[in-house]
Amino acid sequence: MTSKGKLVAAALAAMLTAQLPGAAAAQELKISNFSYRTGPFAATGIPLTNGLMDYFTLLNERDGGIGGVKIDFAECETGYNAEKGIECYEKNKGDSIAVMPWSTGITLQLLPKTNEDRVPIILPGGGNSAMADGKVFQWVFNGPDSYWDAASMMLQSVGGKDLSGLKGKKVGFLYLDIPFGREPIPFIEAKAKEVGFELVLVPVGIKEMQNQSTQWLQIRRERPDYVLMWSWGAMNAAAVNEAIKTRFPIDRLVGTYWSAIDDDLQMAGDAGKGFRAISFTAPKPDAPVLAEVQKHVVDTGKSLSTEDQRAETLYQRGLAVSMMISQGIRAAQEHFGTSEINAEQMRWGMENIDITEAILEEAGMGGMLPPFKTSCTDHLGHSGGWILTWDGNRFQQSEELFHAERDAIAKMEEEGAAAYAEANAPWPVQTCDG
Amino acid sequence: MLFRTGGQFKTSYKEDIALFPVRQDAILLGVVLVLAWIVFPLTASEFVFQTLLIPILIYALAALGLNLLIGYTGQFSLGTGAFMGVGAFACYKMVTLMPWMNPIVAVLLSGVFSAGVGVVFGIPSLRIKGFYLAISTLAAQFFLVWIFEKWSWLYNDNLSGAIEVPNLTAFGVVVTAPRADSVMTYYVILAIATLITWLVMNLTRGALGRSWKATRDMDFAAELIGINLMKSKLTAFALSSYIVGVAGALFVFMWRGAAEPALFDIPLSFRILYIVIIGGLGSIMGNYLGAVLIVGLPVILGTVPEALGLEIASARIEQINLMIIGALIVFFLIVEPHGLARLWELIREKLIRWPFPH
């Protein structure tokens, strides 16, 4: 009765077990990227994934991979669905040197498994900010900057380095009401108390993402001096449009990493002029790396990107993130004296990334991301970021490189990590020398 | 031939009302149970556990709960996802407030909370039915998910607003996801699913089940022959929500390991509704068949190109997959509008008569 259902499942499952992929082909380092080229966030996922992929294709085509070993940058489509994320993880954990889930939700589910499976998770500019603590979160790398870093830099961009410009002001915080959007609230609240500005929280439910009229009515009523915006996907364009419609001065609206999306602002055009967002990468359409990509990847027909896309922030962020990972691979290869590193060695490599100006120049990425270093205790690097301003056509990068306020954040990171370890006891914690 | 019923004589009432009057059905069930209890756990890989066996069982259990309500009692509900959420959050609160509690007991108790909530949202069913009732259960869906988001006590003021499952042991072994062995969680889920399925099978054949069916078929006629509609409807809501709540607790504690409130939103309710409709309304086996089709098949299809050695981009596989599943749903519903369970019934009838059509 209940049974025949299981019977069918059985037969199929039995077939599957026999066929499931075992070891990967030798001589390749596999990185599993959980892409989201489909689903509600595809507009973000496509350019980003193309950028990530094109950089590894470039390394494979031009240099024959890293240290003589090709990189197998394998995509597994999730459509931003956490269930698919588990599927992708189980399918790829065995033969990958790293997985990139691109989702806080998926990462939270995978986190406890990584201690046993021993596969590093790379989650650039995402996840919980406390994951920066390398002692507790041994297997996660969400650098080069966390969301608390972003919040700190965004506040600096409106209030000056010491935030004194915010004293007595009113700051609105418009955020997507999911873990991603709530992440920076404790930091901003702490700052509000410390500096003395009033914080107005304006949550946007995931269902109201595309219709924020009530939220903007509230903003109009409250008349904040600045609005910080924690948005992505379909929420960006709607927020910018509502801001224009309600005549909120757009140059007082500051977005987070994933708000700086060209396509979303393109629709607003000139009316969006002055919109700002923080970013740990800067778009450099003239960077030598783009010419290289054009020559080795695009012209040989190995890229899925379009010309417009390659000039955009997200695509170039994809390139920069891949470069960061490739540095991790290189570090591991040098340290262990082997080109074919395994996942455990990759973890060491990610802990010892040292990106200098010279390395950036060599990669043809001068100025595309700030130099930074990771360590056993600090998995992020805290590279800092630039403010990108929309000029009606493209995002332009600020002169000044912002740096998050480390002291306050480091303390919060430590507390957050300790709380996580306690809630998930027994949780293995690594010790770091020096 | 395989299903020849000739020679199976019933000599007592007891035999006649047995759960499986036809011997072959019982044998088949035995085979399936052996597969589920012995063969799969011994042979399945981690991937099969995590993406096929465990989710199929959990979804089937949730669908079983919903089927009691829709298929057996005729009360339409769109709040399944939220009731699963009640189970999951209740379980989370219990194990964090009372860490000494056995997690399996906590899972079974968490259903009690969702049953309570289910009864409250079932009260409108005494006055309204059909689409109107569906809308009032939809209200449960909005209201409960809103509560999960706003009431931070429910998720212990976790910064991210998500519940994360702590490591819990039962009888000295870690049983909660994600730290536990998949075999362990699988057996826990299988035991609970088997137990509940067996109970429901008997329940639906008994007095209570008959009063549900009478309510479904014509409620005022049922009332005229002396069935207490209030009792029949509310017990259906309670039991259905209980099972759904247990499935929700299993969903988070034995499989996902972490959950955001948005997980329990309408898409989850619809997914379970699909399983019920495609599996077959008013059928117990149908829930399992439906779960295999809706939950298992996409995973299996996704591995086909790789197994065949075809190089297809992952995003394209995903899109082809969606199309195939969509087409299959339409196909199965056209071939047999009463669902997969009915399809199996027809095949079985044919087998019994084989090789003589009529």
How is this structure best described in words?
The complex is a heterodimer of chains A (434) and B (358). Chain A has 434 residues and is α/β, with parallel strands linked by helices. Chain A contains 16 helices and 14 strands. Chain A has helices at 3-19, 42-63, 82-92, 104-117, 147-159, 179-182, 185-196, 213-222, 234-245, 262-268, 288-298, 307-310, 313-336, 343-351, 357-362, 406-423; strands spanning 28-35, 70-77, 98-100, 121-122, 140-141, 170-176, 198-204, 226-230, 253-255, 276-279, 354-355, 372-373, 385-390, 395-402. In chain A, the strands form 4 sheets. In chain A, strands 7-6-8-9-10-13-14 form a 7-stranded mixed β-sheet, sandwiched between helices. Chain A has a 3-stranded parallel β-sheet with strand order 2-1-3. In chain A, strand 9, helix 10 and strand 10 form a beta-alpha-beta unit. The radius of gyration of chain A is 22 Å and the shape is globular. Chain A starts with a helix and ends in an 11-residue tail after the last helix. Residues 12-25 of chain A have low confidence and may be disordered. Chain B has 358 residues and is mainly α. Chain B is 70% helix and 2% strand. Chain B contains 14 helices and 4 strands. Chain B has helices spanning 13-16, 23-43, 46-72, 80-97, 103-122, 131-150, 182-205, 207-217, 219-224, 229-256, 266-279, 285-307, 314-335, 340-353; strands spanning 163-164, 169-170, 173-174, 258-259. In chain B, the strands form 2 sheets. Chain B has a two-stranded antiparallel sheet. In chain B, strands 2-3 form a two-stranded antiparallel ribbon. The longest helix of chain B has 28 residues, at 229-256. Chain B starts with 12 loop residues before the first helix and ends in a 5-residue tail after the last helix.
